[in-house]
Amino acid sequence: MRVSRGPVACAALMLLSTAAALRSEPIRLSRSGAPKLRASAGAAHANATFCSKEEAFAWAKKDHRRLLHVVYRVGDIDRTIKFYTECLGMKLLRKRDIPEEKYTNAFLGYGREDAHFVVELTYNYGVDKYDIGAGFGHFGIATDDVAKTVEIIRAKGGKVTREYGTVKGGKTVTAFIEDPDGYKFEILDRPGTREPLCQVMLRVGDLDRAISFYEKAYGMELLRKQDNPRNKYTVALMGYGPEDRNAVVELTYKYGVAKYDKGNAYGQIAIGTDNVYKTAEVVKLSGGQVVREPGPLPGIGTKITSVLDPDGWKTGIC
Description:
It catalyses: (R)-S-lactoylglutathione = methylglyoxal + glutathione. By secondary structure, the protein is of the alpha+beta class. It has helices at residues 7-16, 53-62, 77-86, 146-155, 207-216, 276-285; strands at residues 37-38, 49-50, 66-73, 91-98, 103-109, 118-124, 136-143, 159-166, 173-178, 184-189, 197-203, 221-228, 233-239, 248-254, 266-272, 289-296, 303-308, 314-317.
C-alpha cells in the first residue's frame, strides 16, 4: 500500500503549479557515449536515473499511484458547496481562506482525502464567472438510484440537461445535470460503489497518442475503449484499477477535431507518486512537458511537480 501524502501539502501543490513553466533539461549521454537518461541537476540526489526508456516506463507501472483530487474554479464557493452537499450528497471535508493571496478553497467528497478521490474548489476574490471551454467534458457521480438523485437535484432548483434513461445501444442508466457554474455531471447507476466521485472526462485531439502517454507517463491502464461511429466519437477509460471501484479519466476523441479551447475554469488532476523526480523524467520521455520542475514545497518539504500531457491538460504530482 502506498504512503498517502498529506492533504494540505498536496493542496498547496495545486496552487503553486499555476506558475510559469520552467525549461526542461534534455536527456544527456554518459561519458562512455552510451545513452543515459538523467533527471535535472536539482533532482540528481533523488536517484532519478534510468538507463533506457523501457526501464523508465516499467518503473511508472510499478510506482504506487492514485488519483487524489481534481481542481477547478468557481464563481461563488458557498453556493457551490451548498449545491454539492445538498444535491450531490458530498461532504465538506475542509475549507480555508487565504486573504493575503485573495482566494478561498474547499475540499468536498464522499470520504477521507487519503482514501478517496475528491474535488478542490477554488474561488478567486472578485471573479464570479469562468469560461469552461469546449475541451472539458464532465465529472461522473455514481449513485444507487439515478432517478432519485435527479429528482432531488430538480427539486432544489438544479438544472437537468438530460433526463435519466438507458444509454443508446446499452443497458447503463445515466442522466446529466449542471452545477451552478455550468460544470456538467453524469449521474451513473452503480449501486454500492466505493468511489462515488468516479470520473473526469477530457477531450483530446489524438486518442491513441493520449492513451500511450497516460500509460507510459502516468502508469495508468487502458480499462476500456469504445468507438461510436454513429455519433462520431471514441472514448478510452484510463485508471489505476477497475472503473467500478476506482476513479478514472475518460478521454474522448471526436472525429476530425484535433484541438479544443480549454477556457480558464478547469484546473487539473492531482496524482500521488513515490518519486516526483522520476515521474517528471518519465513524463518528458513520454512526450509531455514539465511546467514546474520537481522539488520540495517551500516551508513544507513535500516534493511536487506539475506537467502537461500532449493535449495541454495539466496534472499535479506529489
